[in-house]
Amino acid sequence: MVKQLSVFIQNKSGKIASVTRTLYENGIDIRALSIADTADFGILRMLVSDVEKAREALSKENCIVSVNEVDVVSVPDSPGGLAEVLQKMSDAHIDIEYMYSLIDRGTEDAYMVFRFADDANVLDVLETNGLKTIPGSQLGLN
User: Fold this and answer.
1) Which of 4, 23, 51, 63 has a C-alpha 20 to 30 A away from that of 140?
2) What is the spatial distance between Cα 24 and Cα 79, in angstroms, rounded to a whole number?
3) Interatomic CA distance for residues 119 and 109, integer angstroms
4) Contact 33, 45 (CB under 8 A)
5) What is the mean pLDDT of each run of 10 residues along the chain (142 residues)?
6) Are 48 and 93 within one domain?
7) Is the same domain home to 55 and 110?
8) What are the angstrom distances between the C-alpha of 109 and each of 27, 37, 77, 82?
9) Is residue 142 part of a domain?
10) Cβ–Cβ under 8 Å, residues 101 and 112
11) What is the model's pTM?
């Protein structure tokens, strides 16, 4: 499991720039990023080099921040690699709340970040199906 930072932001020009600037000014590296939005607000989900430092810095800027856990899964970096992984998850009846990609240079595989609906036995099911999870330390995350 890896800690993910979620920042709730107004859907206004400059808000994402403000968040990323705050992280930059505090020496925090963004390793993966996804945004989901509605007409009024968005949820910026990120894997960052130091979750607690990022949470503190963004809270000081009056951002609404939460931290939760996600899984990073290794995916073959070839045509059909993601389809194969998702089919294994489907066959194992694993429900996915959301997912986004993570770029890591110098690896043969790609990585996907997953938030699963029921995390109770997901890691066992993933392992049984030959799917490898990646620890945060391997990705430069605290």
Assistant:
1) 63
2) 35
3) 23
4) yes
5) 93 90 96 87 94 96 94 91 91 91 79 86 83 88 79
6) no
7) no
8) 28, 29, 5, 11
9) no
10) yes
11) 0.88
